[in-house]
Design goal:
By secondary structure, the protein is of the alpha+beta class. It has 5 helices and 4 strands, in the order ααβαβαββα. It has helices at about 1-25, 35-45, 60-70, 85-95, 115-125, and strands spanning about 50-55, 75-80, 100-105, 110-115.
Length: about 130
Amino acid sequence: MKIIFKLFFKTIRAIVGPMLLLWEKISTPKGVVRPAEEQQKIDQQCQTMALYQFQTCPFCLKVRRTLRALSLNIDLRDAQHDAQYRAELLAGGGQVQVPCLRIVDTQGQYHWVYESALIIQYLRQRFD
């Protein structure tokens, strides 16, 4: 029975996944256009962040749409297919849950923000 459930959900992901990615491409808003020096400052701030995500996770799609809408160049790390990123997420954040935004503050401390709504709220407050 367990094998049937696994096969069922794998099949669903194989069908729905590409549709979600297509929807993301079609519906992604254009990014904010900023003066070059302002965008450069924001890009420098974004270098201290990384988004751990799964490519077809609907909550990750929401966060990636926000990244594009705000023109944020944050490193995207695929914790589903890359064992190193998955291990970093587990070791640093304590759980393999996506999306997760890793933020390094000015003192070099790591902060791990889970939940798409909290990530989006943080990004909008900081960069909008």
